[in-house]
UniProtKB/TrEMBL annotation:
Gene3D superfamilies: Immunoglobulins. GO terms for biological process: cell wall organization. This is Molecular chaperone. Residues 24-147 form the Pili assembly chaperone N-terminal domain. It comes from Escherichia coli. Belongs to the periplasmic pilus chaperone family. One of its GO terms (cellular component) is outer membrane-bounded periplasmic space. SUPFAM superfamilies: PapD-like, Periplasmic chaperone C-domain.
Length: 234
């Protein structure tokens, strides 16, 4: 008798829309902004699938190394969401050790695990034996209250200083905000060698390149929308 093997695939998705397109799981936000004066924040998980329930496992991780965050918790950690049901996840801060002069960033993870389908045929290897776990990941941005001024947040991208160096393009961020760039192109060709164009506060981001004659990009706002394209000639 052959042993049935269950394969589990973890799909790390940066966009909740993709998760919805796959199996009906959807997050109602693309990022969460957590003001330091808030007691909590929330995000809704929707199951638009009419036939399938999912077991949700939620956690908050560090952005840089995926280790479990010590600064935030999310509840409920485990929840079974039924077909056409929604659940509100609550995010709470657990300490006051984060910097007060700049933003901090984390990841919200929502792993959706489908129920295992039971078959009476122990030798079966039908496609139904494949179980897909979908991990939707979005940013959690902690923003000190004194920095949460709409005009300054919206205009932060204007302070980016972009310079052409010998073997790279330098992007300097002199603001206390994380600035996410998108649709980055050098010489009208999209840059695909870097997955995450997020420039940290008070830091420099380098894009290795040679013979760059033009550089274009857009930036993402607090709601996941895109700013107008900026085109720079060197």
């Amino acid at each position: 008798m052959r042993k049935k093997i269950l394969y589990t695939f973890l799909l790390l998705l940066s966009s909740p829309v993709v998760a919805h397109d796959l199996e009906g799981i959807n997050l109602d936000l693309t990022r969460v902004i957590f003001d330091s004066q808030q007691n909590s924040a929330s995000i809704k998980v929707n199951n638009f699938n009419e036939n399938k329930s999912w077991l949700l496992r939620s956690w908050i991780s560090n952005y840089s190394d995926d280790g479990k965050s010590k600064s935030f918790i999310i509840t409920p950690i485990l929840y079974r969401v039924l077909p056409n049901e929604s659940i509100q996840l609550k995010i709470e801060k657990t300490d006051d050790l984060l910097p007060t002069d700049r933003e901090s960033v984390f990841r919200i993870n929502v792993l959706a695990i489908p129920p295992k389908e039971i078959s009476n045929d122990k030798t079966s290897s039908k496609p139904s034996d494949l179980q897909f776990a979908i991990n939707s990941r979005i940013k959690l941005i902690y923003r000190p209250h004194k920095l949460n001024e709409t005009d300054k947040v919206n205009d932060a991208f204007k302070s980016l200083k972009i310079l052409k160096k010998n073997e790279y393009i330098s992007i300097e961020n002199a603001t206390p905000y994380y600035i996410t760039m998108d649709n980055v192109k050098i010489n009208n060709k999209k840059v695909t060698s870097i997955e995450d164009f997020m420039v940290a506060p008070y830091s420099e981001f380098k894009i290795p390149t040679q013979n760059a004659k033009s550089f274009s990009y857009t930036t993402i706002n607090d709601y996941g929308g895109k700013k107008p394209i900026i085109d720079i000639k060197f």
